Amino acid sequence: MQNIFDLSGKVAVITGSTKGIGKSIAEQMALQGATVVVSSRKADACEAVAAEINTMVKDGPGSAVAIPCHIGDKDQLQQLVDQTHDRIGEIDILVCNAAVNPFYGSMADIPDAAFDKILATNVKSNHWLCQMVIPEMVARKDGVVIIVSSVGGLHGSSVLGTYGISKAADMQLVRNIASEYGPSNVRANAIAPGLVRTDFAKALWENPETLKATTANASLRRIGEPEEIGGVAAFLASKAGSFMTGQTIVVDGGR
C-alpha cells in the first residue's frame, strides 16, 4: 500500500523557517522525505537550522538547504526562487509562513508605517511569491501552496486589528488561487493556528492572565506546540491532502 503522506522527491520552499511554526513545517516535511529550503533574513540562522535538519534526517531521503531572504524585498524573493531552481530544481510546495506584527493596540493609534508594513509583509509578499512560483506549477499541472494565516483573521480584536486584517486577506488569497489554478491541479490552502508556543506569540502565552483567558474556552484547555502545525502542513502538501483546496484549516485546540 502506498504511503500517501510521503513527500520524497518534492522540493518545498518555506519562508520564515528558522524558528517556531516555520521551522516545524520544514522539519516535518523533511521527515516525510522532502528537500526543504530553509529561509529567513539571517544567513547564519538558515545555515544552522538546515544543518540541524540534515542531521535529523541523515538516514532518510529528506534534506535541507539554506537560502536567506527578506520577504519584504521583491528582488530577494526572486533570488530565493532562482537560487532554489539553480541548486535543487523546480518548486513543488510553497509555504508562505513569514509574517510580522509591529504594533499591539487600538487601530485608532496605529501609525501609517506600521499599517503599511503589516499588509506589505503579510499579504503582498505572499502574492509576489505566488506570482513567481505558480507558473511552473501550472506548466507541469502539479503544485501546492500553503499560507500560514491565523485565527486572528476569523474574529475581531481590540489589540491586533490590522494583523487580523492581513490574515483574513491571506485566507482570501488561497481561495482565489484555488479558483484560478485548480483546473491546472494547483492546490492552495491556509492554516489558521490559534495560540502556539512560539517566540512570535510570546507576549500572549508568557503572561499568565492572558494565557488563562486564551485557553479558558478551548476544548483542550491548552495552547499549541509548533509541531502540531507542522504536521498539518505536511498533510496538506502530500497526496493525503490532494482533494483539499481553497480551505482554511483552523488548528486552535477547539477554541
Structure explained in plain terms:
The chain has 255 residues and is α/β, with parallel strands linked by helices. It is globular, with a radius of gyration of 17 Å. The chain has a single domain, classed as Rossmann fold, CATH 3.40.50. Helix content is 45%, strand content 14%. 45% of the residues are buried. Strands 3-2-1-4-5-6-7 form a seven-stranded parallel sheet, sandwiched between helices. The protein is built from eight helices and seven strands; from the N terminus they run βαβαβαβαβαβαααβ. It starts with 10 loop residues before the first strand and ends with a strand.
The domain tally reads: 1
- Summing up helix and strand content along with how strands pair, one would put the structural category as alpha/beta
What string, H for helix and E for strand, traces the elements in order? Answer: EHEHEHEHEHEHHHE
Low-confidence stretches: none
Tally of alpha and pi helices: 8
At the fold tier of CATH, the topology name is Rossmann fold
Please tell me the CATH architecture by its name.
3-Layer(aba) Sandwich
**Using only CA atoms, what is the Rg?**
17 Å
Q: Largest sheet, described in full?
A: 7 strands, parallel
